[in-house]
Design brief:
The chain is an all-alpha fold. It contains three helices and no strands. The chain starts with a helix and ends with a helix.
Length: 88
């Protein structure tokens, strides 16, 4: 495996986590545009970090990438981080 293949695999591994990190705070701003206290970028950073950890835990625990349980954990992680950073 060369460096480009490794980069491709890593980008594909973390793509759902980064996608959720951009999508969830954006949609939360549409719903709670007055109530959110944190900035959008602050929430995106924290959601991205937590979702990357969730993806790695899902990979280790389930033995493969792309399991539905991991995706459910991504949604839950995103919601908890948005609540923690912006609504509590």
């Amino acid at each position: 495996m060369n460096a480009l293949d490794l980069l491709d695999h890593l980008l594909n591994l973390f793509a759902p986590a980064l996608g959720m990190a951009l999508l969830a705070p954006t949609l939360a701003r549409l719903v709670w545009w007055r109530a959110l206290q944190a900035t959008w970028l602050h929430q995106v950073k924290w959601v991205a970090v937590c979702n990357a950890v969730v993806v790695l835990i899902g990979l280790v625990a389930l033995g493969r990438d792309g399991a539905m349980a991991t995706y459910a954990a991504l949604v839950l992680s995103s919601a908890v981080v948005i609540w923690w950073t912006g609504l509590r």
